[in-house]
Amino acid sequence: MDTAEELSEPFKLVMPQDYSILTDILKHRIPQSGGMYNIVRTLDNLEAEQSTKCFTLNGDLTSNALLLIIIETLDFGQNISTSIPDGFVADSKIKEALRSTKIINWKGSYMFVGIERSLSSTILDIGSFTFGNTVQLAPTNSYWVDPKIVASLEFKELLNQEDADGEEDGICVRNLDIDQGTSFMMKNWTYARSEAGLRKMISNNISAGVYHQGELVTAGMLSSHGMLGPLVTSLPHRRKGYGTKCAQFLVKEMLRRGLYLISSAAKENVRSIALHLKLMSLTHESDWIFHTAFDSSK
């Protein structure tokens, strides 16, 4: 942006020296903003080319701030997370700021991540009716584990318990090998787009692989959105407790790094919801909103 555009831009870039203020705001909005809190806490671990940037409406860094984090990805365009204060109402000024901002490429590919319901209808309207995009919405349940529960003996036992129905012989859970993980996810994850994008996801984030007699059967990671997932088990090995083992490994590593245990599941994904409820509690309903840019060359 040139100087004139910067002055007129409603969303101002948050500089690294203010990240501590950002984390304090987000911490007071837990669990709804837990994913964004995790992102800011791990920014120093992300490669610069991921282009992760934090913004606040009108430069506000108070408890009333509307915050955005935008991650430029290889496979999904802009991944956009939002954080709003309690009692948020998307008034005409906020709607106009979102419509006019240049930091969101409304005509490009984008994915709004776990948007709270008081904002998601505005995002959907702008994308669909202002910019004429064909937009998809996925309603989700959001989950977390309260830190008080994390500290309890019961939760620690849950993290370490073995699944009675699982196959224990020849099972190993360890950090995901990048080459094996990339190949596995390309074959088994519905939303896999490219090997380059997957390699970047695995190398930049906490990951785990469950191996049965040396074969990778389940893979999972902490996404760039600061949430637990994706977590995928190959079809022949489902319903054997491997997903739970993978989630246990990831949760332990997140706790070791001081992150909040945050995740989400599509409302129609019964299997994922059942897995989440083994370790986590439902916090609120949210929406993921997608747009894939139209390719006129095809």
From TrEMBL:
Alphabetic keyword roster: Acyltransferase, Transferase
Keyword Kinase: no
Coiled coil: none
One GO MF term attached to the UniProt entry: glycine N-acyltransferase activity
InterPro entries found in the cross-reference section: Acyl_CoA_acyltransferase, Glycine_N-acyltransferase, GNAT_dom
Gene Ontology, cellular component aspect: mitochondrion
Residues covered by the N-acetyltransferase domain: 171-298
EC number of the protein: 2.3.1.-
Pfam families named in the record: Acetyltransf_1
PROSITE patterns attached to this UniProt entry: GNAT (PS51186)
Family: Belongs to the glycine N-acyltransferase family.
Protein name, per record: Glycine N-acyltransferase-like protein
